[in-house]
């Protein structure tokens, strides 16, 4: 079992040095606090709305508002310019509202002065809700209804990833933990027996048990047999859930398991590449997703080497941020060789007293990478072309039917050079385009069949909304 500790988020004086100019962002965020998956329908709570709005407000103060520490070059500070922001989320009762709440913090109502329009005939039209700004949110298929589902892996439809995740249940590590923790989970029955039966209160349902108790710890005024839930017991419940979920989301010897992280990597590079290729167009990209995407990406990007807390499930409202920046003059838009990328992570709700921290990607020691090194590192595991996804997943029906070839008996036609090089997000909604960086890099985009979707068995989770507990939890 991986040892878990609380992720210490040190307050940094600034996320960017004075000489830097931020040119773009990619933000991947988890939803805010929600109700338990054990009692569907799962919905975003008032606390969750507040958490996500607070995070959005911090990102506004950091990257958008006039005079902000790292204001994005050319960004509209008050009235949103729709071409400058792209946001997406699964059509889910938790993730979609979270995305909307984050955007409200990012671009709040502009008030009666800015929020009005004068018509030709002199009529002054006031924008409703004190100048409320409407920002479109794109929907992605993968993850739809995921916060109501116990089997997140199934929502991705990658057959080989599902098989890989299920293989964990036959591993010696799993068997050892299942047997050694039997007594521990039995002791928790008085706390959960109103919802989780005795035959399911075990390590196989580690996340479901954690989720149910975690939600109760946040919201319930009374908890049955609450004396059982000592601090040590709560930490053990969470640590076991961390171990369970990480092993379903990633396995170094069977990377197909992390397909969610692999497709997310392709989406990240594609989005940032759009900013680069468009000379600053669409500088802000925001996507909301479930914790499995975080964990599989953590494994693929070797973030666990930077900090072992990345083995854990991220807390509610956690964010991964990719800053695109330059030390050169920002106008005209810098050449690719003058661009850098920095990865930052914050566990839980972001605020002035708890901010994102930079971590090195790919097992390196430097927290900043050149644009070329970043793209090269991501493309070692990114999967974005539909044909590559279909081949890696072993799928031959649905969206993969068109890639099936009868010529050589191969189940897919999409090696790294066989498809059109176009970009597709169609596959299960999570498959973002594989970044056609050949235009900028002069090299073929590398598509590796590494990765495997996340979770097969996670019945319910509720990453610790206990603000103090921070290990990538979700």
Whole-number average pLDDT? 82
Distance between the termini: 18 Å
Tally of DSSP helical segments: 16
Structural class: alpha/beta
Q: The CATH topology, please? A: Rossmann fold
Helix proportion range: 25-40%
Counted beta strands:
10
**What is the strand content?**
5-15%
- Total tally of structural domains: 1
The largest pleated sheet is described as: 8 strands, mixed
CATH superfamily: Phosphoglycerate mutase-like
Shape-level CATH architecture: 3-Layer(aba) Sandwich
Keywords: Membrane, Signal, Transmembrane, Transmembrane helix
Family: Belongs to the histidine acid phosphatase family.
Signal peptide: 1-18
Transmembrane segments: 426-451
Quick tags:
disordered N terminus, two-stranded antiparallel sheet, 474 residues, Rossmann fold, globular, single chain, 8-stranded mixed beta sheet, disordered C terminus, alpha/beta
């Amino acid at each position: 079992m991986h040892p878990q500790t609380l992720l210490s988020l040190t307050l940094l004086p600034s996320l960017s040095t004075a000489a830097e100019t931020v040119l773009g962002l990619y933000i991947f965020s988890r939803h805010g606090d929600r109700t338990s998956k054990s009692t569907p329908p799962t919905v975003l709570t008032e606390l969750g709305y507040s958490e996500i709005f607070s995070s959005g407000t911090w990102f506004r103060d950091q990257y958008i508002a006039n005079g902000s520490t790292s204001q994005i070059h050319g960004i509209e500070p008050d009235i949103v310019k729709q071409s400058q922001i792209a946001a997406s989320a699964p059509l889910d009762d938790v993730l979609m509202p979270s995305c909307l709440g984050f955007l409200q913090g990012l671009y709040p109502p502009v008030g009666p002065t800015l929020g009005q329009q004068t018509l030709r005939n002199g009529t002054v039209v006031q924008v409703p809700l004190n100048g409320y700004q409407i920002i479109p949110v794109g929907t992605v298929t993968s993850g739809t209804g995921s916060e109501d589902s116990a089997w997140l892996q199934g929502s991705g439809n990658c057959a080989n990833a599902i098989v890989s995740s299920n293989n964990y249940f036959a591993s010696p590590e799993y068997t050892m933990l299942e047997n050694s923790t039997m007594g521990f989970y039995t002791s928790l029955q008085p706390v959960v027996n109103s919802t989780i039966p005795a035959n399911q209160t075990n390590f196989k349902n580690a996340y479901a048990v954690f989720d149910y108790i975690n939600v109760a710890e946040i919201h319930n005024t009374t908890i049955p047999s609450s004396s059982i839930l000592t601090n040590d017991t709560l930490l053990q419940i969470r640590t076991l859930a961390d171990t369970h979920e990480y092993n379903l989301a990633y396995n170094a010897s069977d990377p197909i398991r992390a397909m969610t992280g692999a497709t997310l990597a392709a989406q990240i590079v594609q989005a940032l590449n759009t900013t680069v290729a468009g000379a600053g167009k669409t500088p802000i990209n925001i996507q909301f997703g479930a914790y499995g995407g975080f964990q599989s990406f953590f494994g693929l990007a070797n973030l666990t080497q930077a900090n072992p807390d990345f083995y854990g499930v991220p807390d509610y409202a956690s964010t991964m941020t990719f800053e695109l920046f330059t030390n050169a003059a920002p106008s005209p838009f810098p050449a690719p060789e003058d661009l850098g990328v920095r990865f930052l992570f914050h566990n839980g709700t972001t605020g002035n007293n708890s901010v994102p921290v930079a971590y090195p990607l790919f097992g390196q020691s430097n927290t900043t990478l050149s644009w070329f090194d970043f793209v090269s590192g991501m493309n070692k595991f990114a999967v974005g072309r539909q044909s590559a996804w279909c081949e890696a997943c072993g799928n031959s029906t649905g969206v993969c039917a068109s890639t099936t070839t009868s010529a050589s008996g191969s189940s897919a036609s999409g090696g790294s050079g066989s498809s059109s090089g176009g970009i597709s997000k169609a596959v299960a909604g999570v498959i973002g385009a594989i970044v056609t960086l050949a235009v900028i890099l002069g090299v073929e985009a590398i598509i590796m069949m590494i990765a495997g979707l996340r979770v097969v068995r996670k019945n319910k989770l509720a990453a610790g909304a206990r603000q103090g507990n921070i290990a990538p939890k979700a």
